[in-house]
Amino acid sequence: xxxxxxxxxDHNGRIALKLPVRTADGTLAIHNTPAQFDRTLHIGYLxxxxxxxxxxxxxxxxxxxxxxxxxDSVDCSAFVQDVYRSMGxxxxxxxxxxxxxxxxxxxxxxxxxxxxxxxxxxxxxxYLGLDPNGNPMVIHASSAYQQVMVARLSDVTSQISxxxxxx
Length: 167
Fold this sequence. Notes:
With 167 residues, this protein is α+β, with helices and mostly antiparallel strands. It has two domains: 1-44, no CATH class; 50-165, endopeptidase domain like (from Nostoc punctiforme) (endopeptidase fold (from Nostoc punctiforme), Alpha-Beta Complex). The chain is 18% helix and 30% strand. A six-stranded antiparallel β-sheet has the order 4-9-5-6-7-8. It has a three-stranded antiparallel β-sheet with strand order 1-2-3, with no helix packed on it. Strand 7 and strand 8 form a beta hairpin. It is elongated, with a radius of gyration of 18 Å.
């Protein structure tokens, strides 16, 4: 998510992705593969909006948690980094550095906007808003449950260090 793939216009006027492939003799070659555009492949970055942030976050639902993103997994900071990168917003890789990089900060989640990042020591979560019962909800890569999941904020932490937002 958020990867930039070089493209060319093929001889039929269609966009082709320039993808690396290993040849039979083990060397690297570039193969032009016709692009199949859908919600997972987009020309340019997605527009930055609350809805886009939340839609992108939900694409990770159920993905395997792995510290440091080992073996096709995500940890909390890689998860939010990937979500924001799909909109062309580059934030640091580490949760503590992400917290320092957020320009709008408070320690009160009640003031958070949907799409904001909620930090506790060593962990970051993406704020979704209130459920029908008025409970603040987050989506995050949970080490405890080993997956990306939605949770009530009160079930995840009582140690919020800050809430950061880009707007």
